[in-house]
Design a protein that fits this description.
Elements (H helix, E strand, L loop, with lengths): L14 H4 L20 H29 L20 H4 L7 H9 L4 H14 L1 H15 L8 H6 L2 H10 L15 H21 L7 H15 L4 H40 L8 H36 L5 H17 L1 H4 L2 H10 L5 H15 L9 H13 L6 H17 L6 H5 L10 H20 L3 E2 L2 E2 L4 H18 L5 H16 L2 H8 L10 H20 L15 H28 L4 H9 L8 H4 L3 H17 L3 H14 L7 H28 L5 H20 L8 H14 L4 H20 L6 H21 L5 H17 L21 H14 L13 H25 L9 H4 L6 H18 L1 H23 L8 H15 L9 H15 L17 H5 L8 H16 L10 H10 L32 H8 L23 H8 L4 H7 L15 E5 L12 E5 L6 H5 L4 H11 L24
Antiparallel strand pairs: 1-2, 3-4
Family: Belongs to the SCC3 family.
Main location: nucleus
Keywords: Cell cycle, Cell division, Chromosome, Chromosome partition, Nucleus
Length: about 1250
């Protein structure tokens, strides 16, 4: 039987040369056994092992053959090549059915054990054909169409066979079975691994120790794993590693059998002379000897696979291969720790923790989790832990969330099973992760926190197989520790995120609302909590109630779950029922105790949002409802803070549901409260209107009453109390006299605003007087708000702007949409003065100098952040007025001109406004962009004058803004063609609109505007550039001073339009300079598929894409001698056209963003005019502009020159394609 072998003269390169290490070698000082070899050493080692592997394997086979007794029908293990003859019945079948086994595994319709049994039967009948079928199965699993024939198997060596298969491999596609998309091929990978496992399992008592099949299979897989073809390397590595895993299981069983045999032998030997059986002792000795031989053979196979495959492939360039190696290494350590859980194997996982690919790092952490999860194995991990602990702790902050999650879980296992390993500094680096935005990561960190701080003090002990109920003392201890951690750590301001992080591991503790409320209602002065602790505990109570009731994380925390299971929904309903039953009687007590503290009362009132309010009826708890309404009345009368009033108004709104049987009681309580506030307001406002002076107490009382009414007007309809008239008179006095304090004006504005909105809901279209009355109120209120825009108090100005923008949007033409024509008389269009004042307010209060935020932890930074949010709110309201047609669209220029300067603060809002405006009217939007540049230029010109204008920083900033505007047009070049041309023409007119001073050689004052226009030149077609050049020359003829002068802006603008001129014209000999010359090979033959040509023309890489599969076969390339010699000889263009007549038809391929196609012969429509060649661009533009330079315009220009097609033809617009992925920076 011939043997697949590799010779030392194999043409395949060494594994080290094929697969460089993914990261730099790590030298670990001070730790024995962890010194990683240098790259050169590993390469030399790879070469040596690759050449000597089969010789050593052959020696091992001969050694095993000598020890084993001959059978009745001996089979030669390692016959020399050519010594075995192929019998006649096998000569008829030249090639075996190679696809049968592969098709069966791919289909996965039959049981894998029966499939392996069938192959074993065929192998026993014909070993050559059976083994060839197995070899071809692995070859086809790689995606190779070639097969190994009996002649190849007989005459070729291992490396020659692999070289032959490599030459037959199809490199056109990167897909092979293990990497092919779709669920079918993903299932194939599982079937493939199951086949390898079943093969070893079925052969463990027969063929596994028969040297020929397994040794040759290992040799084949080792050779394939060294191939440069990724499919060969990936598939063979997976097969080898799965084969190794199965051999490890067999070795583990042999080890167990040896231990049992040893115990039986010792027991038999210890018997007395009369009871001892010599025959049994002899059989046990023979059995032990056989097991020892089998174990040596298995260890030899494992050693061959580890050194031949794993040592080289764990640092393969392909991350999938590295992940396979690390995953299987972890399984070996777990299943056969006696042999593999040593520092010599652990070092590979430690090194790979630094891998740059997430999947590999993930496999490392999962492998370590299996080891650290077993307390019996942790004693053998001390050296590894001391060396790589810092790396494992640092991976908590990994950029990939799933890797960070596994790192935290690994550290949790280390915390549980290895006492004292993690220091306080290590733990403190993990604590902040409980506030991470990713919920899985925060939950893992919460579990670590629970096991570190809470479990040792609050653990539940089990007695008699049942868990004891947690004692109240343990629960109080838990909440005291939780308060201590949150308050003292000062890592975050909101306890809701800490509760959510601990919910999965300590949810039973957090849902102990009895202990929570008992701590809050504690009467013992020695047990009372501090003020900060009480506020934090109330927030924890609210967070736990919300988490149990809604079952979703707080705002801003990401989770991948979409819906709850039926079991989780049942738990949610039960928890909501329990918390409602427990908190309804205690809520009035909590409100009574903390009624004086607004910070504590507001979250207590929010508890009602998560109650099952029907329990008030079903459980006969109306008396507790009466107590709650009393406490709510007292809280509203006592407090004037917006958060408390909003929470109280919303709580009362929830109870005012007509479906509840207690609605009458709640409505009566609401009427009593509103009447009390209204009477107080009427009395106080009359005093203010009649008197010209009020003391501070009277002002505070009136402002507080207005705040309460405004908050309740937001949630409840208070129209029947007629609050509009007194508030209007109050505001009118404030505008006319200015004697009303601003503390009173702010809530009065809001109250009138809500009054108008509630009146709008009562309009039915029947009563016209009602419509006219509302229209009059709305117009009057808009006039009041317009007057408030010029108030001296910024708070009043901002409030008036917000209310005015909302009202204008509500009463815009959009309100009649949906069959509401009866509301048409209410449509209101603001006058020009109001629009101007709104724009002026925006300039004065929004587009101010942006402040620099530092770390964000100081009080000043928080104040700046709040101010930024308020300014963003104002800008968003103004932009909505623009987009809904309330304001003139030209006013958007006041917003767009600040796009670049305030990009960090308002970039997203302005970009969205620009996008929506372009969707409404593309032409008008383009004119607005130009108007924005004109306004900025005019402002700068008035401030600095025309001299040296283009050198100022403000002008450079304008150029950046123009570049952003140009990029905002996107890749739809043909669609935007007319708009860009119009923009250029209008810009040229503006630049020459003012003539220079008479008798002066100075340039026109607006001429520098041409430099801004040059940023839009890349968006032009070649033909349009030529037309614009002619248009510019005609315009310059009307400027007398321009004759004979070379103005810089004109030169710059013309240069941007001349960027595609042929370099032939720039050289007196008709050729470009030699240092800039670049000659390409012959053009590709014409393709029938225009879509593929378009895709290829859109490539911007300077090199062709590397094929996914790289063959070891050497492919020759045709030299470009003819074209090179012709260019070096300096031949004319006509000679080049005659020597290459076939260059007219194919479409040229843009191979670089700085390489363009130009016409060699601009004149004449003949064949020579259609010849193209590559020339380097002479213009020095920014990379940003070059990336967005349209590549299709050059082909459009060529076709226009040849007269064969029109530039407006859709096929010429190569940039109008979704396949060109140009990211707009704007």
């Amino acid at each position: 039987m011939p043997t697949l072998r590799s010779s030392s003269s194999s043409p395949l390169p060494s594994p080290g040369a094929l697969s460089p290490a993914p990261s730099a070698p790590v030298q670990i000082p001070g730790v024995r056994g962890y010194a990683r070899p240098l790259q050169g050493d590993s390469d030399s080692l790879s070469a040596g092992e690759g050449s000597d592997f089969e010789d050593s394997l052959r020696c091992n086979v001969k050694k095993r053959a000598a020890k084993r007794p001959l059978r009745s029908t001996p089979v030669a293990k390692q016959p020399k090549k050519g010594s075995r003859m192929i019998h006649g019945h096998r000569q008829k079948k030249a090639e075996p059915p190679a696809s049968d086994l592969f098709d069966a595994v791919r289909a996965a319709k039959s049981d894998m054990q029966s499939l392996v049994d069938e192959w074993l039967d065929s192998y026993k009948q014909d070993q050559d054909a059976g083994f060839l079928e197995l070899i071809n199965f692995f070859v086809q699993s790689c995606g190779c169409k070639g097969t190994v024939t009996p002649e190849m198997f007989k005459k070729m060596s291992n490396s020659e066979i692999i070289q032959h298969l490599t030459e037959q491999f199809n490199e056109d596609s990167g897909d092979y079975p293990l990497m092919a998309p779709g669920a079918f091929w993903k299932k194939f990978q599982g079937s493939f691994c199951e086949f390898v496992r079943t093969l070893v399992y079925q052969c463990q008592y027969s063929l596994l120790y028969d040297g020929f099949p397994m040794d040759n299979l290992i040799s084949l897989l080792t050779g394939l794993s060294d191939s440069q073809v990724r499919a060969f390397r990936h598939t063979s590595t997976l097969a080898a590693m799965k084969l190794m895993t199965s051999l490890v299981r067999v070795a583990l069983q042999l080890s167990l059998h040896k231990d049992n045999n040893q115990r039986q032998y010792d027991a038999e030997r210890n018997k007395g002379p009369g009871q001892r059986a010599p025959e049994r002792l002899e059989s046990l000795l023979e059995k032990r000897k056989e097991l020892q031989e089998h174990q040596e053979e298995i260890e030899g196979m494992m050693n061959a696979l580890f050194k031949g495959v794993f040592v080289h492939r764990y640092r393969d360039v392909l991350p999938e291969i590295r992940a396979i190696c690390i995953e299987e290494l972890g399984s070996w350590m777990q299943s056969y720790s006696a042999s593999f859980l040593t520092d010599s194997y652990l070092k590979y996982i430690g090194w790979t923790l630094h891998d740059k690919h997430r999947e590999v790092r993930l496999k490392c952490l999962k492998a370590l989790k299996g080891l650290y999860g077993n307390r019996d194995l942790t004693a053998r991990l001390e050296l590894f832990t001391s060396r790589f602990k810092d790396r494992m702790v640092s991976m908590v902050l990994d950029k990939e969330y799933d890797v960070a999650v596994e790192a935290v879980r690994l550290l949790t296992l280390i915390l549980k099973n290895m006492d004292g390993v993690l220091t306080a500094a290590d733990c403190e680096s993990i604590y902040p992760v409980v506030y991470a935005s990713n919920r899985a990561l925060a939950s893992a960190a919460g579990e670590f926190l629970y096991w570190k701080l809470f479990y040792p003090e609050c653990e539940t002990k089990a007695m008699g197989g049942r868990e004891q109920r947690r004692s109240p003392h343990a629960q109080r201890t838990f909440f005291h520790l939780l308060l201590s951690f949150f308050v003292e750590s000062e890592l975050h301001d909101h306890a809701a995120y800490l509760v959510d992080s601990l919910w999965d591991c300590a949810g039973s503790h957090l849902k102990d609302w009895e202990s929570l409320t008992s701590l809050l209602l504690e009467k013992d002065p020695d047990q009372n909590l501090g003020d900060i602790q009480e506020s934090t505990l109330i927030e924890i109570l609210l967070s736990s109630v919300r988490q149990a009731s809604e079952a979703h994380p707080p705002v801003g925390r990401l989770t991948g779950r979409k819906s709850l299971t039926s079991k989780e929904r049942k738990i949610q309903a039960d928890d909501r029922m329990k918390l409602t039953e427990h908190l309804i009687p205690l809520l009035p007590q909590l409100l009574a105790k903390f009624s004086a503290d607004a910070e504590k009362v507001a979250p207590l009132l929010q508890l009602l949002n998560y109650f099952d309010l029907s329990i008030y009826c079903t459980r006969r708890l109306e008396k507790h409802l009466e107590l709650f309404l009393q406490q709510l009345h007292e809280v509203v009368v006592k407090h004037a803070e917006p958060t408390v009033l909003e929470a109280g108004a919303h709580a009362l709104y929830l109870l005012c549901n007509p479906e509840f049987t207690f609605f009458g009681r709640v409505d009566f309580a609401r009427s009593q409260l509103v009447e009390l506030l209204t009477d107080r307001f009427q009395q106080e406002v009359e005093e203010l209107l009649q008197s010209s002076f009020l003391d501070e107490d009277e002002v505070y009382s009136l402002a507080a009453t207005l705040k309460r009414l405004s908050a309740f007007y937001n949630a409840h309809d208070l129209t029947r109390w007629e609050l509009y008239e007194p508030c209007y008179h109050l505001l009118r006095k404030a505008v006319d006299t200015g004697e009303v304090p601003h503390q009173v004006i702010l809530p009065a504005l809001t109250l009138v605003y809500f009054s108008i909105l509630w009146s709008l809901t009562h309009i039915s279209g029947v009563d016209e007087s009602q419509v006219l009355s509302l229209k009059g109120r709305m117009v009057t209120f808009c006039e009041l708000c317009q007057s408030c825009l010029s108030d001296v108090v910024p708070e009043i100005q901002e409030q008036a702007f917000v209310l005015l923008s909302d009202l204008l949007l509500i009463f815009s033409p959009q309100m009649v949409v949906g069959g509401r024509d009866f509301l048409r008389p209410l449509v209101f269009f603001p006058e020009a003065t109001l629009q101007s004042e709104l724009a002026s307010f925006l300039m004065d209060h929004v587009f101010i100098q942006p402040g620099d935020l530092s770390s964000g932890h100081s009080q000043e930074d928080h104040s700046q952040i709040e101010q930024l949010h308020q300014r963003r709110r104002l800008l968003a309201g103004f932009c909505k007025l623009l987009l809904y047609g309330v304001l003139e669209m030209d006013a958007a220029s006041d917003v767009f001109k600040h796009y670049n300067r305030f990009y960090n603060d308002y970039g997203d809002i302005i970009k969205e406004t620009l996008t929506r405006a372009r969707q409404i009217d593309r032409s008008h939007c383009s004119r607005i962009l130009l108007l924005s540049l004109k306004q900025l230029y005019t402002e700068l010109l008035q401030e600095q004058g025309p001299q040296g204008l283009n050198e100022l920083p403000a002008f450079i900033e304008m150029r950046d803004l123009a570049r952003r505007f140009a990029l905002s047009f996107g890749p739809q070049q043909l669609q935007n063609r007319d708009l860009v041309v119009m923009l250029h023409k209008e810009g040229i007119k503006f630049s020459l609109s003012e003539p220079p001073p008479e008798g002066s050689s100075a340039q026109p004052p607006n001429l520098a505007f041409l430099e801004l226009l040059s940023e839009f030149s890349p968006r032009l077609f070649h033909k349009d550039k030529q037309l614009l050049l002619s248009y510019l020359k005609k315009c310059l003829q009307h400027v007398p001073e321009a004759v004979g002068l070379s103005w810089g802006p004109v030169t710059t603008y013309c240069h941007s339009l001349n960027s595609v001129e042929s370099t032939v014209e720039a050289s007196p000999q008709g050729h470009p300079p030699s240092k800039r010359r670049r000659i390409e090979g012959p053009c590709r033959p014409p393709r029938e598929d225009t879509s593929s040509s378009r895709e290829e023309s859109l490539q911007v890489a300077s090199m062709p894409p590397m094929p996914t599969l790289t063959s070891t076969a050497v492919k020759s390339r045709q030299p470009l001698k003819a074209l090179t010699e012709l260019e070096e000889e300096g031949g004319s263009e006509a000679e080049l056209a005659q020597s290459r007549p076939l260059l007219a038809t194919p479409r040229p391929k843009i191979s670089s963003s700085r390489r363009f196609w130009t016409s060699l012969s601009p004149a004449g429509p003949g064949l020579g005019s259609r010849l193209t060649r590559l020339s380097l661009m002479e213009e020095d533009e920014d990379d940003l502009g070059m990336q967005s330079e349209p590549s299709g315009e050059w082909q459009a220009a060529d076709s226009q020159t040849s007269g064969q097609s029109s530039p407006s033809e859709p096929g010429l617009d190569l940039l109008d394609s979704t396949e060109l992925n140009i990211e707009e920076i704007c």
